[in-house]
Design a protein that fits this description.
Blueprint (H helix, E strand, L loop, with lengths): L2 H8 L3 H9 L7 E2 L5 E2 L3 H14 L4 H11 L7 H34 L10 H8 L21
């Protein structure tokens, strides 16, 4: 099948197919006499696998590892499960970071009436003056607004 047909059957764009080829996730296809790429039917399943793995948060490198494991027959799926657990932990870390970011931004927005002049904007001031990160976490505590209680 042509690259256009593969893209349509896989529900991705043609450029995505080319990108997956460049990244080594999709084997280089044979070429027709006229130079067009000719993909085997199995390419549809492979592209869908890549897309679904991306939807689950796996990086292209991780997807490459999963694809390699997929063709290793006769072994336990323990290493796939371990990768899944690691991805879950990564997602949990990101969710915690996003919650901290949301709380910090929410506090800044709550302190801003929107009526101040731009030179007195509490949000811009907090972003500009802070030597410490605005989000609590690994990098310290969020700064307090001038005159606020500790």
């Amino acid at each position: 099948m042509t690259i256009g047909a593969l893209a349509e059957k896989s529900s991705v764009g043609v450029e995505t197919i080319r990108y997956y080829e460049r990244e080594g996730l999709l084997p280089k296809p044979a070429r027709s006499h006229s130079g067009y790429r000719v993909y085997p039917d199995e390419a549809v399943e492979r592209v869908r696998f890549i897309r679904r793995a991306k939807d689950l948060g796996f990086t292209l490198d991780e997807i490459s590892e999963l694809l390699a494991l997929k063709v290793t027959h006769g072994k336990s799926c323990r290493s796939v499960r371990d990768r899944g657990l690691a991805k879950l932990a990564d997602i949990d870390r990101k969710m915690n970071d996003l919650r901290r970011m949301r709380r910090a931004l929410s506090a800044l927005v709550d302190r801003c009436s929107g009526d101040e002049g731009i030179d007195d904007c509490t949000i811009l001031d907090a972003i500009s003056r802070g030597t410490k990160p605005l989000v609590r976490g690994q990098h310290g505590s969020a700064p307090r607004r001038k005159g606020s209680a500790p």
